[in-house]
Every structure is written in structure tokens, then in C-alpha cells.
Fold this sequence. Notes:
Helix content is about 75%, strand content about 0%. It has helices spanning about 1-10, 20-35, 35-50, 50-80, 85-95, 100-135, 145-155, 155-175, 180-205, 210-220, 230-240, 250-255, 260-290, 300-310, 315-350, 355-375, 390-415, 420-425, 430-455.
Amino acid sequence: MLSNKAAGPAKRTSLHGHWSSRMAFILAVTGSAVGLGNIWKFPYVAGQNGGGAFVLVYLACVAIIGMPVMMSEILLGRRGRRNPVATMALLGEEEGKSRNWQWVGGMGVLAGILILSYYSVIGGWTLAYVFKSGMGEFFGADATRVTTIRDGFIGSWALLGSFHTVFMGLTVYVVARGVERGLEQAVRFMVPALLLLMLALLGYSINSGHFGAGLEFMFSPDFSKLTWDSVLAAMGQAFFTLSIGMGAVMAYGAYLPEETSITGSATAVAIADTTIAILAGLVIFPLVFANGLDPADGPGLVFVTLPLAFGQMPGGVFFSTLFFILLSFAAWTSAISLMEPAVAWLVEHRNRTRAQAAVIMGLLIWTMGVGTVLSFNVLSEFKFLKGTIFDNLDHLTINIMLPLGGVLITVFAGWVLCRNSTADELGGAGTIYKLWRVLARYVAPIGILFVFLKAVGLLPDLA
């Protein structure tokens, strides 16, 4: 039985091709991980939770929770060589357990579809702001003007829907071209471009005159401002910024060559993802302080506060445009990874060509996204449970489906797969493997479960 488990994956190949190199895989997963969560969400969450102390907890959570979950997803993907649904069913059966583990993979695929339905709307919003910045709409604008521009854009279902359509079209185009011609070519260009844009903006931020204040805010911990809510927020941010729990990393792992180190690749991705999140903070906070603005300004930090800051600065039109191009690239690479598991499932289970599957899924996701578009304008007063359609989708996926999926994935990798299977994928039974096994079996599931229980209101406030 054990020899069959070890031999099976070596004979199994992906139906969708493979990454041409380890670097291609690292760029792809980095592109998946680096998204709006790093550049849009991380700075304002850090700002709301005291800066430096939050950053330290976030880094610790990436290491002890994010890394073992990411390694688990990659090893499951490579061992199964199928879409997340088929992979979980196949591996469950191989281990002499139930095929019902396929529902965990199915939940990840569904989460990706639901997230992309509203993520595409926000992605379209970033595209629109590229043009608004380039045309100088924010130049010299005060807070009232910037807010009016934002409200006018999201208040028009036609405008918001048009950019949602363009963004989904770009995503479908890349996914339809396949692993090497589509996904790999896209990330080989966009991830290095994203890093170069970030470094250019960092140079601009350094010369803002308030870089020291931003640096101090990011790296001088004030533990008096750190509450249990802050710790849980850091844990959740570390988990979600790595794109784990939604099937994307598992799907990308299915295309990973056998000789590539999972541990090394996951480490490189975690470092790159975290570095970009930190750089985003170093770009944004000095600009915020230079203009006397509030670093804890919440979700409006990117679409109101930063356009206001850029609008008051020399060269602001150019650098504001660069910033929103950067944001669009980050959103695009993440959107591609969100769509990939569903397209892989449709190709394998419904005998569709890749192009057909991408178009079908793209239309489905676009249609669902219309609900989010309307929730910002026509249906803004239509509220239930957690709020608007957008609010409910965001809460369901981020606060419930992803943590639950992450817990179940690590439980499966740590407890259901036998030692032979996991050691075979992670390269032996040395210190790193033993550390992964402890983290995946105990630490990560418990940590993620805390986030989940807090999100659904079953964990009392401990601050």
C-alpha cells in the first residue's frame, strides 16, 4: 500500500501542462498572493492597529501559519495533479479514506468564483483610476473633490459595470491561453513590472520629506495599542494575503515539476509577498503623513486618501498613475489565480476546451459580479444579514469559507495523508519536514480556527 502511494504521483501528470521552471512557479504564486490584500488592505489594517506592533505579529503569523498552509496546498496539488475537487477525492481514496474530501476542494473552487465576482469590480475600479489619474482629475483636488469623483464613479452602474467587464475580459484572455502561453507569460511580465513600479514609488515616497515618520510608524512597535482583536486581524491578514484556502495555490501546485522543492518555493513566495506588503506600507504612510492625513483611514485609504495626497504633490499626476497601474497589475495576477481552479475543473469534468471553459466561467463570474456593481448604487439600500450584496459576499468568503477551507486542508495534509506521502513530496524526514508536520497538525489549524470563531462571533472580545 505504501509503495503504491509513493509511486502513484510519479506516474501522474497534469492535463493542463507544467510550469517551465521553478522561477515560473514562484512568480505565478507570488502574483496570486500579491494583490489588493497587500497594497490596498495591508496598509490600512496596519494603520488601524498601531503600525509596528501589528507588523511584528503579522510577520510571525506568516511564518507559523501561512507557510505551513501554503506548503500543504502545494504538496496536495502536486501529488494529485488535478483540479482541487478531483485532487482531494483522489488523495482521500488513495489513503484509504473517503472521497468526500472532494467537498473541501469544491468549497475552495466556489470561494474563488465568489471572490472573483466582486474582486473583478474592485479591479475594474483600479483600472478606471489609472485613466482618472492620467487625465489629471486629482491634480490640486481637495478632499471634497476627490470624494465627489469616487462617489460619481461608483454611483454609476454603467461606468462601474463597464470597467468590471474590461477587467474580466483581460482575466479570461490570460486564463484561456493555458499554463505556459497564458499564466506563465503574464506573470513573467507583470510580477517584475509590479516590483519595479513599487520601487519607483518607494523612491518618490523617500523624497516626500516624511519617510522617517512612515518608517517609525511601520517599525516602532507600540504594544499598548495591540489588542487581541489586533492579533487576530494580523493572523487573518497573513492567511488571506498568501491566497491560501481558495484552491488557487493547490491548482498551481498541480503544474509544479517533481524535482522542484516545495519548501524552497513556498519560502520564496512568502518572502516576496511579505516584502511587497511592507513596501506598500513604506510607499503609502510617508505620503499620508506628508499631507497630514490619518493612517487609519480604512478602505478609503487608496481611493480617497492617496489620490488626495498625490494631487497636492509635485509630479503627483505621473506617480498617481503609476500607483494605480501597480494596483491594477496586482489585482489582475490575483484574479487569474482565482479563476484557474474553476476552469481546470470544467476542463476535466465537462470535457471542454480551455478556451471554452474560460469563457463559460468568465460569463458566470461576470454575471454574479453585476450584483456587486449594483450594490454600490441602484441596490445600495437593499441590505440583508451583513449588509449589501458585496458585504455579504466578502463576509461569507473571507471570514467563513477561506478559514474553514484552510483548517480542513491542513488537517487533511497533516492527519489524513500518511508520513510516506507527505515526506515524499517535501523531500525526506529532516528537521524542516518535522517542523512543518508540527505546524500543520497543531499550530496552524488552531490559529486559523481562532480567526474563524472570532469572525462568526463565537469568540468573546479579550481586549
